[in-house]
Amino acid sequence: MPELPEVETVRAGIVERALGAEIESVVVHDIRSIRRYAGDAHQFVEELTGAVIVDAARRGKYLWLVLAPRHCAAGGIEKISDLSQIPPALVIHLGMSGQVLFKDSTFAADKHLKITLGLKLNDGSATELRFVDQRIFGGMFLDEWMHTTDAAGELIPSASRSNLGLPVVPRAVSHIARDPLDPNFSYADFRTKLRKTSSGIKRLLLDQSVISGVGNIYADEALWRAKLHYNKPAKSLTAAQSRTLVDAVSDVMQQALVAGGTSFDALYVNVNGQSGYFDRSLHAYGQAGKPCVRCLEAGKTSIIVREPFMNRSSYRCPRCQRAPRQAP
DNA sequence: AGCTTAACCTGAGAGC
DNA sequence: TGCTCTCAGGTTAAGC
């Protein structure tokens, strides 16, 4: 289940492997993996072929490739100041089961191979960027650039390292809030959004327009670390609790990132096809029936429970994450 | 307008 | 063995 650490692992892999690469060919094996795109498969291929990958950027779970026209050497794009002269962004979302893999064309097609980009790398060698997706909740599309300002009005782009010198994100990403690993993440903006709703706190954590990059796994882990119940009304959190929660999200994501991400069933892998191992460090998610390690260390016994939540599951310790008096 | 729910998918595993 | 049922979950459109 790719959440922020998994997507960031993929982004870093693309930067390491494909910067400066020219997209020589594009094959769409399954049209369903192209989403939110006005054109058809043929147009997708036409628009993408010949472009050069100059960067891979990310906000929350959204990942996008910054492209330059063929005639434009990698790095030369900074000189372009008119957005209309810049090729559209190649936006990638992994959904539930999406993978980005680098493999030479000699390797057999993967079982759920959806889109193949044939790349000519900087050193002249060739390889393939393969988008593989079993459940097809993910996909990719070409998207126009949009100027962006955050709530504070500053003109600073997202996590992109080479940002064209412009405050831009793909249009589809413009409604996504900054994630906790973004240097411009705002605690104040987060708390403002919490105070405006009657919803429980976990619903807000999963709302990508409030804080991005958080999915079911890291939401449960962060709530466990912050000792909060998923149904605690968001507006009832104190400023200190809000900050503690964001720090818990940030900490668990950074630790998962170091571990190469979380993996349960080999659905999530990095660009080399390897699984992360953070699942061995989970304290709440998927731990139903096991003792809460924090309670255990305190000499108490409490068993993690799994409860239905928003058509999925929530895991919590019934002792250190007590239910609010009145459920919202 | 704010909030909730259904739909999109496939495969693994459980139950019969 | 083989069938059916349930579950996994990110996002968004539709419904209330």
Quick description:
It is built from seven helices and twelve strands. By secondary structure, the chain is α+β, with helices and mostly antiparallel strands. Helix 1 (4-18) packs across helix 6 (239-258) and helix 5 (216-225) crosses helix 6 (239-258).
Overview of the molecule:
The protein has helices at about 5-20, 40-50, 185-195, 200-205, 215-225, 240-260, 295, and strands spanning about 20-30, 50-60, 60-70, 90-95, 100-105, 115-120, 125-135, 140-145, 145, 170, 305-310, 310-315. With about 325 residues, the protein is of the alpha+beta class. A 4-stranded antiparallel β-sheet has the order 1-6-7-5. It is globular and about 65 Å long. The two termini are about 30 Å apart. It binds a DNA duplex (16 and 16 nucleotides) through loops.
Rg calculated over all Cα atoms:
21 Å
The share of residues in helices is: 10-25%
Strand content: 15-25%
| Order of helix and strand elements from N to C terminus | HEHEEEEEEEEEHHHHHEE
Q: Give the number of DSSP strands.
A: 12
Task: Give the strand order of the largest sheet, numbering strands 1, 2, ... along the chain.
Answer: 1-6-7-5
Poorly predicted runs are 73-80, 151-164
Main beta-sheet annotation: 4 strands, antiparallel
Distance between the amino and carboxyl termini: 28 Å
Report mean pLDDT, rounded to a whole number: 87
